[in-house]
Amino acid sequence: MKHKFALNYLMSQPWALDQQLLSLMSDIANREVDSLSLDDFVPESLAGKSGKKITRGMEKREGGVALIHVSGVISRYANLFTNICGGTTTQLLAQDFTQALNDPSIKAIVFNCDSPGGEANGIHELAEMIYQARGKKRIVAYVGGMACSACYWIASACNEVVMDATATAGSIGTVLQMRRRKPKAEDDFETIEIVSSQSPNKRQDPGTETGRAAYQKHLDDLAEVFVQRVARNMAVDRDTVINDFGGGGILVGQAAVDKGMAHRLGSLEGVIAELKTGKKNTMPDPNQTNTAAGEGESNITLTLPGSEAMSAADLIAAITEQRPDAIAAIKGPEPEMAISHAADLVAACAKAGVPAFSASVLKEGITKAEAENKIQMATGLKDTLAAAGLSGSFDALVGCIDDPVKMVGKAIHEAKAETDENGDLTRHVTDEEKKTTSLNAKEIYAKR
């Protein structure tokens, strides 16, 4: 007798999953699986271009965009059930998302969704991880096929939900499928189950009204968390989710956008291009026409890396890559260099009476504006020294024009030297005058 582990697992878990696929999974899990090749269930992405494969479910596109594939049924952990029924797991999705979030070379993340949903366990944790990462990097969910139930929960946690016009979204709610064992007369053994008297609710019989009510409450509680989180993620109230988001059904393309379940229509390659360039191009609504001038123009977005360990240099590099025009506007136009205007600056120095100063301003790295400012400062210094009678000190002081402290010290030294020199001259002149104007009576009588 073969044990049907996949079927047992399927029946033991609550699912946030499209009903049609749940039935199909049940049929697959119920059959013999000896002849199945597990390699046949490796998911492949439908995209116009391929990127560098980072993990089994994630690739990196040019421009720093990570593409994480959410394909097939979502389970919590990778196991035999995943291999048999295909799909992905919240465990692997969380690992891929964390890796992309912490990679400085990745500036935006796209969840490429095409899944009917999956196991309820683990979905809330993954969705919360995505929601809490909003603002760190741009996170977009693209729905090219379906984002039903658990998959829509994940998609709603992203900054934005973009859908193809033929894609479907919804199926908000939970379901639990049970299969009761029927006793057979030919069975050798009879299964007897005894539950502790302290735990009357440990083994509820879904065949009874009380047991069914207990299971119903469990599903309702799970679904309430689902509804509340979707309402928060999509910035609507709970009643809007209950009344407008399909009531457990699914909506297609523009209808989902109109109800607020998605933000806009678009394509996968279009979303990736937008995140790469920072320009958002929205697929037009066929039911609306643009009448106002400028309506329908591209919006500009900017995605910055959000890792706390990100350096200022990395942030500047990210802005430079996405918006070089913004960096250019901050820096302003390239300044004119002094060497390019050598003739004009030489003439300006000559006119100011400081012709030799032109050699100081015609150097590599000095801008025209800086050179003109230096000439103006040199002219002011020349006039100030002339007024103080220290014109001879100009050459010594102008060499320190870029170092005010040094120039002040040198000016004091020059002024003191000039004062001392003038003092010696005065004493010399006074002594000579005394010798020529004083009277000596003995010399006068001797000469007579």
Automatic annotation (TrEMBL):
Residues 418-448 are annotated as: Disordered. InterPro entries: ClpP/crotonase-like_dom_sf, Peptidase_S49, Protein_C. This is Peptidase S49 domain-containing protein. Belongs to the peptidase S49 family. Residues 418-436 have a biased composition (Basic and acidic residues). Signal peptide: none annotated. It comes from Vibrio sp. FF_304. One of its GO terms (molecular function) is serine-type peptidase activity. One of its GO terms (biological process) is proteolysis. Keywords: Hydrolase, Protease, Serine protease. Coiled coil: none annotated. It holds the Pfam family Peptidase_S49. Residues 135-280 form the Peptidase S49 domain. The lineage of its organism: Bacteria, Pseudomonadati, Pseudomonadota, Gammaproteobacteria, Vibrionales.
